[in-house]
Amino acid sequence: MSPLADVHLMIHRRCVLKRDFPLLNSSHTSIQQNQIAQQLGILINDNRQSQEFAEGRRTEIKNKPLSQFISERGVAITLRLCNVMSEDQLPPIWKELALAPKAQQLSVLQLALDEKNQATMEPDIQFIASANLLTVMKTLSFKLTSVNSVVSGLNAFLFYEQLEQEAYETSTTWEALIDGTDGATMADLALLLNAKIKPPLNDMDVRHMHRRLEIMCQVLFGDHHVVPLAIGDFLVH
Question: With bands split at pLDDT 50, 70 and 90, how would you rate the model's confidence at 179?
Fold first, then answer.
């Protein structure tokens, strides 16, 4: 026969149940809920901070200054060469190269050359960007080291017609070396960076070499700069 209902007995029985089954204790449940809410708040805060950091990183990359590509002095020289007052007025290639990863800079230069090439009167002229041309840009080595030099600065002898398969394989090798997907040695890089020249075989070769020089100068200095305009006038006459 079950005992008669008694207040003290019922309280005691409830205490025994709470002791044996903690989940029945409403105070413990409240504590657990608070703990869950705190952990959830921490996770939400961590996620928000991660998103803010990622967004800040994207903004930093998007607004990466040209000085990180060619240094502060290089920016000043480039502004003077292009005859503009600010980085925003420079031809697009400078900003594009500053933002591009190192392994993609040669491809960015190639796209810019292709775009200008298509706009010329002779769009079928072959023009393949090389690691040497990219280095000329990055180091601003546009000036001849001497009057008789044919391997320095921007001169027509650097813009000969290349063997396409060999040229594209060289470009692919360069990007792989810079990206770190291929083991690079100083000797490997030196071979790719060495300036190569080839004398023209006929008048058409001379014309095409100067046309490539004109395209390169348009990319570097802008379509209306005095240098590409002068080369264009020379080709017309």
Answer: low
3-state SS assignment for residue 84: coil
Give burial (CB, 10 Å; 0-12/13-18/19+) of 156.
buried
Residue 117 and residue 127 in contact, taking contact as beta carbons nearer than 8 Å = yes
CA atoms within 13 A on the CB side of 125: 29
Measured at the CA of 153, the angle between CA 148 and CA 155, to 5 degrees, comes to: 70
Domain ranges in the chain are 7-61, 85-236
- Rounded to whole angstroms, how far apart are CA atoms 44 and 54? 15
- pTM exceeding the 0.70 threshold for the entire prediction: no
DSSP for residue 5: P
Burial 184-205 (b: 16+ CB within 10 A, else e): beeeeeeebeebeeeebeeeee
Alpha-carbon distances, residue 62 vs 56, 111, 152, 199, 225 (angstroms): 10, 19, 33, 42, 27
Of residues 78 and 124, the one with the higher pLDDT is 78
